[in-house]
Amino acid sequence: MAELTRKEMLGWLSEKDPQKLEELFREARACAIRHVGPKVYFRGLIEFSNFCSKDCYYCGIRKSNRNLERFSLTEAEILECAKAAYEMDYGSIVLQSGERQDGVYAGFIEDILRKIKKMTSGKLGITLSLGEQAPETYERWFEAGAHRYLLRIETSSPALYQRLHPADHSFETRKRCLEALCRIGYQVGTGVMIGLPFQTHEDLVGDIFFFKDQDIDMIGMGPYIAHADTPLKAQISDYDPSENFRLGLVMVALTRLFLKDVNIAAATALQTLDVQGREKGVLAGANVIMPNITPTDYRKLYRLYDNKPCLDENARQCKNCLEQRIRAAGAKIGYGEWGDAPHFMRRKSAAV
Ligand code: 5AD
Ligand code: FES
After folding, report:
1. What is the CATH number of the domain that holds 167?
2. What is the mean pLDDT of residues 186-211?
3. Which of 253, 259, 291, 334 gives a 20 to 30 Å CA spacing to 221?
4. C-alpha span between 85 and 145 (Å, rounded)
5. Measured in angstroms, how far is the CA atom of residue 315 from the centroid of ligand 2?
6. Considering the domain boundaries, does residue 1 fall inside one?
7. With the CA atoms of 239, 245, 246 and 252 taken in that order, what torsion angle do they form, in degrees rounded to the nearest 10?
8. Mean pLDDT for the chain?
9. Cα 321 to ligand 2 centre (Å)
10. Is residue 318 in contact with ligand 2, taking CB distance under 6 Å?
C-alpha cells in the first residue's frame, strides 16, 4: 500500500461505515504482524506516586486538585512490585508517577533503578514515565539502567497545548525533552490524547506527522476522558464516548500504517470506553499492553480520568484477564522478552 496522504488520513478520521473501518483495522493488524511481529508485549505498570507539581487542566492528579489523597509507595513496595512483574514473566515494567523535579526524587529513582537491575540480573527491562526533567537527570537514570522513556506530547498543536495547560507549561520545553531523550540513547515513546475539546481532525493528522518527524520509537495514545475535578471538564458541552473510541482506534490504525515498525500501546483509556477496548486496539494495529501492577489499594488514588478500569483487581487477576482477552483476539503474548521496537534498532544503526 502506498504511503497514506494527509487527505486520506482525514478521510479515515471521518469514516463511520463499520465495514470500511474493519478493513482498515485488518490492514493495520497485518502491517503490525509484518513489521513488528505477531506478538503482544506486556509492560507491568507501577503508578508509584500521585504527587505532582504540574497543573494540566485535564488531569485528575494535577496539583490544584484538593479532592484527592496523595500517596507515594516506599522503595521496598516498588521493589516488591518489580519482583512480582519479574516472577509473572513480564519482560519489562513502566515506572510512572506525577512530576517531581527535585534532587531527592532523582536520587530515589536512581537507587531504585540500580536495585531492580541487580535483583533481576539486568533481565527486567525498565521504562520510565516521569515527565519533564533536566537532561542531566535523564542521563543519570539512563546510566542507572532505564532504557526506555515515555513522555506524551499530549497534542502536537502548540496552540491547543496552550489551551490545555497553564501559562508556565511549555510545548517547546516538552519537545526539547523528547529530543534530549533521543540523543541520550533511550528508546523514546510519545503520544497524544484523542478527542480533546477544541481538537480538530487536522490536529490529529498533525500528531501522526509529528511522530514521524521526531523519529519516535513507541507510541502511547488514547481517548481523552473527562475527570470531574478538573477545569477542562467544565468546558465540555458535548462528549460522545463512542465517537472518541472510534477515533482512538482509527488513530492506532493510521499510525501503524504510516510508521510501520514502531511499538504502539493499546491504552487503558480505550478499555474505559469499551470493555473490549484493548483487544480491539490490538486488532487495529497495537502490539503493547500495560497491565496495571500497582498495589490494589493505591489504584483508585491514581485516577487521571473518571471510570478507570481494574480498580479492584490485583496484578495476577489482571494478568489472567488480559491473557484471556489477548488469546481471544487471536494474538500471542511475548512473555519474558523486552520486545524492543525494530524502529529503534534502525535509528541506532543509522546514527553510527
Ligand atoms: N484522559 C485521558 N488521558 C489522560 N491523561 C491525563 N489525563 C487524562 C484524561 N483526562 C494521560 C496524559 C498523560 C498520561 C500519563 O495520561 O496523556 O501523559
Ligand atoms: Fe485488569 Fe482485566 S486487565 S481486570
Report:
1. 3.20.20.70
2. 97
3. 334
4. 17
5. 8
6. no
7. 130
8. 96
9. 5
10. yes
Judged by DSSP in three states, 191 sits in: coil
Residue 200 lies in a domain: yes
Q: How far apart are CA 92 and CA 86, in angstroms?
A: 8
Is residue 183 in a domain?
Answer: yes
Confidence check: pLDDT of 121 > 70:
yes
Ligand 1 centroid – CA 6 distance (Å): 26
| Domain presence at residue 256 | yes
**How many domains does the chain fold into?**
1
Q: Are the beta carbons of 269 and 225 closer than 8 angstroms?
A: yes
**CA Rg, the chain, in Å?**
19
Average pLDDT over residues 278-283: 97
Matching residue, cell 482509527: 250
For residue 222, give the ligand nearest its CA: 1
CB 282 within 8 A of CB 289: yes
> Could you tell me the distance, in angstroms and rounded to a whole number, from the CA of residue 255 to the centre of ligand 1?
19
Which bin fits 12, alpha (ψ -120 to 50), beta or left (φ > 0)?
Answer: alpha
Q: Are 178 and 135 in contact (CB under 8 A)?
A: no
Q: How far is the C-alpha of 268 from the C-alpha of 261, rounded, in Å?
A: 22
In short, whether 193's Cβ falls inside 6 Å of ligand 1 is: yes
Structural domain for 298, as ranges: 6-351
pLDDT surpasses 90 at 311: yes
Percent of the chain with pLDDT over 90: 95
Q: Is the CB of 304 under 6 A from ligand 1?
A: yes
CA dihedral 111, 185, 254, 333 (to 10 degrees): -50
Ligand 2 centre to CA of 31 (Å) is: 27
